[in-house]
Write a structure and sequence with these properties.
The chain has about 500 residues and is an alpha+beta fold. The protein is globular and about 100 Å long. The longest helix is centred in the first third of the chain and has 39 residues.
């Protein structure tokens, strides 16, 4: 029976994204087994997997700092000392088992060699020759045990090292898998992975994130007010927001799919700051109370109402992985009722009422195909959220982003897009002039579809601009039936 690895873990061991691994598996026609790959096949695809010159740890840290959505609730990349020590104890247990198996194998080999030497006393010439050959093979095997330099050993060592700094979580019944890094809770890591786990407050007050630990060990990160019954504790239930993983976990947890509607919420939030990125763009930073986080899906919008009663529907421009710290983009001239108030920075420290979420401009569920995002004007807000989720999920073969008109030079948005392009091997970013002809832009989209017919297209922007793109595409005979489109602004 071959040793199998999940595709998520195999991708980490090979220091590639899961999308890149799946692309290579399909290209080389390697067989997988229900989302798992044999160690031997992984080594055939990536024969140079080793520890000596592998930058995986530095690469993960660099991507987190430069490319992933910034989180305000993680203490850092490495686990805290207590979690690290407990994981080291788990690692020690694995080493003891491995060393025990090795000792048994060595003893067996010694015994077999001794028996074969005794058999040499027998007179049969042919038997003597065969036994000599066997002894030579076994001696060679013993010599290789001392070197321990084979590819499987290096892969085992690397996997063991990764388990010290990260733990994997597999959800039942969906089968989704993700990793916990640093001091993230089970819930925080799941949200960062783009999964729609149930939760309410993220602070241990409501109990909505309750899940059952099927296997593995957890450690409480913080005390919580919600009380689990004695029976629930006995059955292995914990709060996902208040616990982290010590070892790899299998848990039962409620999880919404893309097609499921999230509950309607009404939350009072505070405007932390307003940043004027340019005369045309303002960035609104909003924070919900510690006891209430907004559950939403990337690409969705909420209704925002000010203390003065001014109301408008805005797209959330941040990743669903952080439901407390929300980002909204306001573009001058798109007809928002909040435009004047926001650009004058009159909203700072004010309380807003958020209602929602709503909208179906969403990533296709469990899609591993290449994706192309195109945004213009206000369309950047939902597209930015979708891109961040696609990056955190880390399953798409390739991710491309085209911003028509770009974002303000030197702005935080421009730096963010370029950091994605620099840090991620499977990400491409380019901006175009605002005056680019619809025919030329459609040509770029068609080129992406010709390079890979499986490419998913997501486009957001003003209605008139979208209609012109569709007309030009129809004139070229392009089937736009599967394009995901969102009208943003006039």
């Amino acid at each position: 029976m071959p040793q199998l690895l999940s595709l998520s873990r195999a991708a980490r061991l090979a220091d590639v994204t899961r999308g890149e691994l799946q692309k290579k598996i399909r290209k080389e026609r390697v067989k997988t087994f229900e989302g798992e790959i044999a160690v031997e096949d992984l080594l055939i695809l990536y024969p140079h997997v080793n520890l000596d010159d592998d930058p995986v740890l530095e690469r993960v840290q660099r991507i987190k700092s430069e490319a992933r959505p910034k989180s305000h609730y993680s203490d850092g990349w490495m686990p805290d000392p207590q979690v690290l020590m407990q994981r080291l104890h788990e690692f020690q247990h694995t080493l003891v088992q491995t060393k025990s198996a090795l000792n048994t194998s060595e003893a067996l080999l010694d015994e077999v060699v001794s028996d074969l030497r005794s058999a040499l006393e027998k007179p049969e010439t042919a038997l003597r020759a065969a036994i000599k050959l066997c002894i030579g093979k076994l001696d060679g095997a013993m010599g290789r045990l001392d070197r321990a330099g084979d590819a499987k050993a290096r892969l085992f060592a690397k996997d063991a090292l990764l388990k010290i700094v990260t733990a994997s979580v597999r959800l039942q019944p969906s089968g989704h898998e993700y990793f916990i890094e640093g001091n993230d809770s089970i819930l925080e890591a799941g949200l960062k992975a783009g999964l729609y786990l149930d939760y309410g407050c993220t602070s241990g007050n409501c109990g909505a994130c309750k899940c059952k630990v099927v296997s593995g060990a957890v450690r409480k990160l913080r005390q919580h007010d919600y009380v689990l019954s004695a029976k629930e504790q006995e059955e292995g239930y914990v709060l996902a927001c208040s616990n982290t993983a010590i070892s790899d976990l299998v848990i039962e947890a409620n999880e919404a799919s893309v097609s499921d509607e999230l509950p309607h919420q009404m939350i009072r939030a505070v405007v932390r700051k307003v940043e004027r990125e340019s005369p045309e763009l303002a960035v609104l930073h909003v924070q919900t109370p510690r006891t209430r986080s907004l559950r939403f899906k990337a690409g969705q919008r909420v209704q925002v109402t000010t203390e003065a009663g001014v109301s408008d529907t805005l797209y959330i421009a941040s990743c669903p992985c952080d439901g407390r710290n929300l980002l909204f983009l306001l573009f001058a001239g798109i007809g928002s009722a909040l435009e004047e108030t926001v650009f004058n920075c009159d909203l700072v420290k004010q309380t807003l009422v958020l209602e929602g979420p709503e909208g179906q401009f969403l990533l296709h569920e469990d899609s591993k195909r290449p994706v192309l995002f195109v945004a213009r004007g206000g369309g950047l807000a939902p597209v930015k959220s979708l891109v961040e989720q696609a990056i955190t999920i880390d399953e798409a073969e390739d991710i491309s982003l085209i911003l028509v008109g770009g974002s303000p030079a030197g702005s935080s948005l421009e730096r963010l897009c370029r950091s994605w392009d620099d840090a991620l091997d499977n990400f491409q970013y380019r901006s175009t002039e605002a005056t680019i002809a619809a025919d030329e832009l459609v040509g770029q989209i068609v080129q992406a579809m010709e390079e890979n017919a499986r490419t998913e297209i997501y486009i957001a922007g003003p209605d008139a601009w979208l209609q012109e793109l569709l007309q030009v595409a129809a004139g070229k005979g392009v089937d736009t039936g599967e394009w995901s489109l969102e009208t943003v602004g006039c």
